[in-house]
Amino acid sequence: MHNQSIKKIQFLENEKNHIEILTQTNEKYHIDHLISAIPAFALANYLDNKQHEILRSRLNQIPFVNIIVINLLLEKEDIFPQVAFGYLIPSREQSHLLGVLFDSCIRHESDKQKRGSQLTVMMGGAWFDQLRLGQCTDEQLMHITMNELKTQMNLNEKPLFYSISRLNKAIPNYNVGHEDILDDIYALIRRNNLPITLVGNSYRGIGVSDVIFDARLEIEYLNLDTMKRKQ
Q1: Structural domains in the chain, sorted by start
Q2: Which range has the worst mean pLDDT, 61-70, 75-84, 139-148?
Q3: pLDDT of 196-208, one tens digit each?
Q4: pTM of the model
């Protein structure tokens, strides 16, 4: 199975191959164990509603928020207050921006010969709807961005180039009670003896390093469990 869209995932009882995956072209694949790295809401959509309604409900309780990412290229060099990864902005500052990455400071050595300064600006998140960012045109978003950068970094220069990406349901929000939701999800998996492993940023950390570390732990646990069952 390669490069195919999924229509449904069904867990089979009393079968050697415990999981049936139905593709959009109605092909069926049977597997022993599923490692899911897709967002929680996407996994919920694929599960059989009648078979695991409660599990679907819990997975859908992990909210995802929209993000706007704006990449900027400025002609002037050395615009950064110091060599750094960038900065995040506390919510109490009431800024439209979530944070700014200093791409020119962190890019690979072979890329440092390029002229100008590169920035990545992030907007939205939990405040996406409150700030009505979904209703903004590209011109309005750029106006907001450059005004914020002028205030925060004393930048007055117009960019040579910019690109705007609107990312729907881009990152999960771990609200109060997230651990309780996870406890319910794992309890349902254990109680029903479902052959599935959950990885990705929906559950135990949204950062790249968190996801890699968590996936490694899960695979080590899965390998250990497989060895025990073979003994």
Answers
A1: 6-62+176-230 (3.50.50.60), 64-172 (3.90.660.20)
A2: 75-84
A3: 999 999 999 988 8
A4: 0.82
